[in-house]
From TrEMBL:
SUPFAM superfamilies, sorted: DNA/RNA polymerases
Record keywords: Plastid
Higher taxonomy: Eukaryota, Sar, Stramenopiles, Ochrophyta, Synurophyceae
Gene3D superfamilies assigned: Helix hairpin bin, Palm domain of DNA polymerase
Stated name of the protein: Uncharacterized protein
């Protein structure tokens, strides 16, 4: 085979995406494979090796009648890289002083220097274009593969089974822990530091159809616990309890309405390949049931607390509960190498991935459940540390700019959680989201047990500094979950007593965070538990008195003789001045805020209509166009989060009465 024939073949074949300019590349190859002034013994030998490689490889392809495929093969790519290496070495030789001559006071390079440099740069451009194309295709492929980790994948794959319930994310704890009272004195305000601050592929999902018998939590743990990793699983349980508890929330859904909504979302997704952002409410109720749990979330943090605190009978009740569904990343499925991970999950490598199960009349999915983790610590950690520094500077200088900056950092951190929990983003992951919120709920519950918290709101609460719980004596038999779920039972228990953390509110200690942290640690020590977060106090919220109502409405009479008020759901005091005045009057008169009917908590406000409002109004035959003012009913009713219900039946009975009040209004 002549070299000229090879160049002729080279000039007529389409080499994209490796080479875009065939003529330029032919010149580059022609120049490179001829003897050159820069060639030393090593480079001459390398040039001859390339010539031999081309002749042997191309002749073999030509004899098999597949010379055209050669230019799209790995053999050609290897030749391409060999040319690059040869030119690179020549370029290095030409830049040495050996090949430079003095002429009229200037440094003049050998004429071949500029030719090689020009050809080498042309080669670099071709190689760069090839790399960009390959990286782009690789990124697109990887992006498509990891889409399976998103919230919507649980919706699409498990719509007809209980696995679809795994896409529900339980919110943070928001509860009035002392609903029978309304007025407290000597108030402190404590918060967790950075409470809400992995890309995974398809997890193992345990799901059931309506005909299948569900396993129990005890059986599930016996079978799978050795495969569970803290933070990488969530279990949905349902069942009755023989005792009262206020730790685990229930996520109540009406199956017919829920699946109707699921089907509507799926139909929209199949027709447009997008999630219905405006109408994605799955119509669920977050409820605190005392003697029953429905779709309650069990994570590593919850499981640890239950095992440490529950009595043997209480733990037996939990183990007998049904596992509605579970989603977890097995320890044995973890893949540490990213490239190996993508090879495993690539559907092209999957054989017999699906099999029809005639017994259950369903399709068994036997695809790999390999997963790969991407720690977020290096991304979130610096943000949390910077926020801590800004908060410290604000306390020292009282410069409002520091406070504004730390609030921005808080917003960024919380937004990251929102993205991870949202069905609108491909990286949304309910396992991670439920573990984040569950850790916050469990820890705020533990903290409130020791400080006798009043209104728990996600990551903090107010408490009376002269009424906190302490161990009276070392417990022989530790109080269980039922006792810790009720302050009144704790007060009557022989092992607990109420004490004052610091008697004088006017001269607060500077190390109050350390004092409270030590107190909480001693309280949790018999249970061998520790808080997962550091705590800090809002000293500006320390108050003489506090008047509170429901889960998030309160007024503080601070030590600085100012009033701080917060009405949950209201952006400004002017939105419902009458409601605020009623609460203030009850505070000043020190009389309970009497609720004659739930209409006391309803009022109208004017808003700008959204597209969602427009869609809803069309269904009611009273069209409200987007962008125009509209009147909307603002509710301040006793929501499911603010009341305790014994079971699901009691909750629906209350909901029916509440709906009657709304209709009458």
């Amino acid at each position: 085979m002549s070299f000229e024939y090879f160049l002729d073949i080279l000039s007529v074949h389409n080499l994209y995406p490796i080479v875009k300019d065939k003529k330029q590349f032919s010149i580059l190859v022609s120049t490179s494979l001829k003897p050159h002034i820069a060639d030393n013994e090593r480079l001459s030998q390398y040039r001859m090796d390339i010539n031999r490689y081309i002749q042997n490889t191309f002749v073999e392809e030509e004899e098999q009648g597949s010379s055209k495929s050669f230019f799209q093969s790995a053999s050609f790519l290897r030749f391409f890289l060999m040319i690059r290496q040869l030119n690179s070495l020549r370029f290095q030789e030409l830049t040495k002083n050996t090949f430079r001559k003095q002429f009229s006071g200037r440094v003049q390079k050998n004429p071949l220097d500029s030719e090689i440099v020009k050809n080498y740069k042309a080669f670099q451009n071709s190689n760069h274009a090839m790399a960009i194309t390959q990286n782009s295709l690789k990124r697109k492929k990887y992006s498509n593969l990891i889409n399976g980790c998103s919230v919507k994948s649980l919706l699409i794959r498990y719509a007809s089974t209980t696995g679809v319930f795994n896409m529900l994310v339980t919110d943070g704890r928001c509860q009035n822990e002392q609903p029978d009272e309304f007025l407290k004195s000597n108030i402190g305000d404590v918060d967790f530091v950075s409470c809400y601050g992995t890309a995974l592929e398809s997890p193992t999902v345990l799901a059931y159809t309506s005909e299948q018998k569900k396993t129990t939590l005890g059986v599930f743990l016996e079978k799978y616990e050795h495969e569970l990793i803290d933070g990488f699983y969530s279990i949905l349980i349902s069942g009755k309890l023989s005792f009262a508890q206020n730790l685990l929330y229930s996520k109540i859904v009406k199956n017919d309405l829920f699946h109707m909504r699921i089907n509507k979302i799926l139909n929209h997704y199949e027709s447009s390949n997008t999630m219905d952002v405006e109408n994605n409410d799955l119509m669920t109720d977050l409820v605190l049931l005392t003697h029953e749990i429905i779709n309650g979330i069990i994570t590593a943090d919850v499981l640890k607390v239950l095992r440490k605190i529950c009595s043997s009978q209480e733990w037996s009740d939990f183990k007998n509960m049904e596992v509605v569904s579970a989603v977890f990343y097995k320890k044995s499925d973890f893949e540490s190498d990213l490239d190996t991970f993508f090879k495993k999950i690539d559907m092209k490598n999957a054989k017999n991935a699906y099999r029809y199960n005639s017994k259950n009349q369903s399709i068994d999915d036997s695809r790999t459940r390999a997963w790969f983790s991407i720690p977020l610590k290096d991304f979130v950690g610096p943000l949390i540390n910077e926020r801590k520094n800004l908060k410290k500077l604000y306390k020292e200088t009282l410069n409002s700019s520091y406070n504004s900056m730390q609030e921005n950092y808080k917003l960024i951190i919380n937004t990251l959680y929102g993205v991870l929990a949202s069905p609108y983003f491909e990286i949304g992951n309910t396992v991670l989201a439920n573990n984040i919120t569950a850790r916050a709920r469990v820890n705020i519950w533990l903290l409130s047990r020791s400080l006798k918290g009043i209104q728990c709101i996600t990551d903090g609460f107010q408490y009376c500094v002269r009424e906190v719980f302490q161990w009276k004596k070392p417990p022989i038999r530790k109080p269980g979950l039922e006792i810790l779920s009720d302050y009144k039972k704790m007060e009557k228990n022989r092992y607990f007593q109420c004490i004052s953390l610091y008697p004088d509110m006017k001269s607060l200690p500077t190390n109050i965070d350390e004092i409270v942290s030590e107190h909480v640690s001693k309280f949790l020590e018999p249970y061998d538990l520790k808080l997962a977060y550091q705590i800090e106090h809002k000293t500006e919220h320390f108050s003489h008195e506090m008047c509170y109502l429901l889960k998030a409405h309160y007024i503080l009479h601070t030590l600085n003789e100012t009033f701080i008020s917060k009405i949950g759901g209201i952006r400004s005091k002017d939105e419902n001045e009458a409601f605020l005045m009623k609460l203030m009057k009850s505070f000043l008169l020190k009389k309970p805020f009497l609720v004659l009917s739930e209409t006391n908590f309803l009022h109208e406000e004017t808003l700008i209509a959204s597209i969602h409002d427009y869609e809803i109004s069309k269904k009611k035959n009273m069209v409200q166009y987007p962008g125009y003012p509209m009147k909307k009913l603002k509710e301040f009713h006793l929501t499911s989060c603010e009341r305790l219900f014994v079971n699901e039946e009691m909750f629906y009975y209350w909901k029916k009465i509440h709906q009657c009040h709304r209709n009458n209004y």
